[in-house]
Specification:
Number of strands: 0
Shape: extended
Structural class: mainly alpha
Radius of gyration: 19 Å
Distance between the termini: 38 Å
Largest sheet: none
Helix content: 40-55%
Number of helices: 6
Number of domains: 1
């Protein structure tokens, strides 16, 4: 009986580790790939263009996420208990006029500007 409990505990731990690794892999994908995985087409971000030649408008990020400003994004994250630090409300966001694409690179891996000084900082 004890061996069965230990075995099931090990299996549960491995499943939890696998789920965490899967979530981390998803978060490391470029924004456009994460959008595609959710069924969001190019034209949604690129103002109706099916084969876009120009960058998406930063306003499309706010519209799609149902936010009217940077502050509403910050408020949503403040209410999310998973976050240790709010990447959308800090000394950088308060002193600069930022666009979503400064961190969320769309077709490249995200570049978190906080990491320029705070290497390895985790928000969750």
């Amino acid at each position: 009986m004890m061996r069965k409990i230990i075995f099931l505990s090990v299996v549960a731990a491995l499943l939890a580790i696998g789920a965490a690794a899967s979530q981390q892999a998803q978060e490391q994908k470029p924004t456009a790939d994460r959008h595609k995985d959710r069924g969001v087409t190019c034209s949604v971000c690129h103002d109706g263009e099916a084969d876009p030649k120009a960058a998406a408008s930063p306003k499309s990020c706010l519209t799609c996420k149902n936010h009217d400003s940077w502050n509403t994004i910050s408020e949503r994250i403040n209410n999310d208990k998973e976050y240790k630090f709010n990447p959308h409300h800090n000394h950088i966001t308060e002193t600069n006029d930022l666009e979503c694409t400064m961190c969320h690179q769309a077709h490249k891996e995200d570049t978190i500007i906080c990491h320029k000084c705070h290497q390895g900082m985790k928000f969750k």
